[in-house]
Amino acid sequence: MGAIETVDLTMTYGPLTAVDGVSMQVAEGEFVGVLGPNGAGKTTLLEMVEGLRRPTSGSATVLGEPVWPRNAALLPRIGVQLQASSFFERLTAREQIHTFAALYSRPAREADDWLERVGLAEKAGTRVEDLSGGQAQRLSIACALVHDPEVLFLDEPTASLDPQARRNLWDLLSGLNESGRTVVLTTHHMDEAETLCDRVAIMDHGRILEMDSPAALVRGLDAPTRITVAPGLVDRAAGRSIDGVEDAEVGVEGTVLVTREPARVVSRLAELDLLDGVQLHTGTLEDVFLTLTGREYRA
Ligand SMILES: Nc1ncnc2c1ncn2[C@@H]1O[C@H](COP(=O)(O)OP(=O)(O)OP(=O)(O)O)[C@@H](O)[C@H]1O
């Protein structure tokens, strides 16, 4: 059984089609990222799959159950962290997560463990409105996880986290995924998607443009390799016949050699003893993203 299946899922707001006929499947145990420019429809898509928004048309199932009308049987099985954290006012971090735990009949000690796991044990007695942005975000993630859901939805979970908290959250999410949980997150961080996700969906204008593993998406881009050499070496390389690499097409942009035959070019550089400081850059997920979605600002 798949963890998530959507069929032609669509949401319109007046004349705007925010999500435009999305059909996708996520297998149980998969880690999936949804990437897209601002306004692409990621949050709207997730909120329909979570059963928080009624689609204009189309349908979604999670763990084989329809999500709309709101399905009470599903609630204990899914965890949802929203982009705008909404907390019970004037509660401390501990009271907040204890309340969530109690809603799902989970013991308070497990709630305390979650505070520890997201690095908030020291802030347990702080009121939620006095937490920093990143601390509040970690609390909202802990609240989404406290009932040990099978499918986890996170909307830009690392948006306001510092580098330490971001890496710690990566470890936490990878661990949950390795223990069989399905994870779906939205992110603007390509490195995050590349590191964590089995597959990523690249969205724009309400549609999924591509959905595949990061490696397959990058391979599909068929980008040339850029070989950065130390300043001055390009001339020496050219002077000493880099085109001794027969038939290897090598473009030169400043101190960068651009080629589709990096192995041959690098071995020629080695022969010429010009390897010092050489760096290789192949295509990245960001290149795929920008190729598919363009570079103009979004509303
Ligand atoms: N309640 C609403 N009423 C009208 N338009 C809406 C509503 N919610 C979202 N939209 C519009 O739908 C489009 C998709 O919004 P959505 O929040 O899903 O994008 P997103 O991909 O999550 O963007 P971001 O990366 O900025 O979070 C946007 O143009 C947004 O303005």
TrEMBL record:
<dbReference type="InterPro" id="IPR017871">
    <property type="entry name" value="ABC_transporter-like_CS"/>
</dbReference>
<feature type="domain" description="ABC transporter">
    <location>
        <begin position="4"/>
        <end position="230"/>
    </location>
</feature>
<keyword id="KW-0813">Transport</keyword>
<protein>
    <submittedName>
        <fullName>ABC transporter ATP-binding protein</fullName>
    </submittedName>
</protein>
<keyword id="KW-0046">Antibiotic resistance</keyword>
<dbReference type="Pfam" id="PF00005">
    <property type="entry name" value="ABC_tran"/>
</dbReference>
<dbReference type="InterPro" id="IPR027417">
    <property type="entry name" value="P-loop_NTPase"/>
</dbReference>
<dbReference type="InterPro" id="IPR050763">
    <property type="entry name" value="ABC_transporter_ATP-binding"/>
</dbReference>
<dbReference type="InterPro" id="IPR003593">
    <property type="entry name" value="AAA+_ATPase"/>
</dbReference>
<keyword id="KW-0067">ATP-binding</keyword>
<dbReference type="GO" id="GO:0005524">
    <property type="term" value="F:ATP binding"/>
</dbReference>
<dbReference type="InterPro" id="IPR003439">
    <property type="entry name" value="ABC_transporter-like_ATP-bd"/>
</dbReference>
<keyword id="KW-0547">Nucleotide-binding</keyword>
